[in-house]
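User: Sequence in, structure out. Go.
Assistant: Echoing your sequence, followed by the structure tokens.
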Amino acid sequence: MFFFFNIITNFPFLSLLIGILLFLGFNQIGEFIFYSKSLKKIVSGISDLKYQYTTFGLNISLIFLFPISLFYNNANYIIFFYAIILVILGLYKCIFILLNFNLKYSIVSKYNFDEILGISLILAFFLLSLSPITHADALDYHSYVAKYILTKGSYPTNLENILNVISGSGEVLIALGYSVGTEQISNLVQFAGLLSLIGILKKKGSYDNISLLLLLSIPVLVFFISSSKPQFFALCNNLLIIKLLISSKIKLLSLSKYKMIFILLSSIFLFNSINIKFSFILSSFIIALLIFYISYKIKYLFNSFL
């Protein structure tokens, strides 16, 4: 594990490639998760599924990696081996994409100007997410906590250090990247959140180029995508759950297994949002109240509460 520590400074291009492979690894984990037909039916009602693969892979990974880092003294080795698995999965995904890539006709002839502009902006944000960590506070306590996890083996819990109090589960993802010699994964997590929003917009019947361009032209996205602090990812988590809540298909679900999957999915996403940044506790609490209300309407309140 410690062999990879110097890759970031000595071999920056290799570090970048490892970061992309980690990102693709999370994407492959998400694709495995969507083998569940019940989950696929729930999410396909509000989003194009392939845009949600990475988001789901990240959330499912966080829900067990963060507790492990908190309560297990040798969590650094688990994080390292999980990172290796992700790199292998990412390499598999990369090979699969290359083998199935087929450019039949030029992009200019396939898309109109608005679509080309949208694709260009998405590509620009992706390239921005590949930049190294430059934010001062990210270089301070975010990186400090991540390195502490890898060197000490567990999450820092000493409340006398203010840096420990203001950190969250996002630092586990940074530690995951550091364990295999890459710092870009934290920025790519933010880009995964953007892909999640694009997937909601691209859902058949609700997509138009103007909505996409309005989303991609929000100035604050430049700050979010270039930041290693995954608050934008947490924001997109909550927006996805809100979209599920207002979907009429979710309200009318009659089978218990769909209800339970929806409740578990919402809980995982909201828990991760709060753990990433504590300020999300207010919005997550309001969303949780709405979930309880809908559960009451579909006569599933007691199960939801449990």
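User: And one key feature?
Assistant: The chain has 18 helices and no strands.
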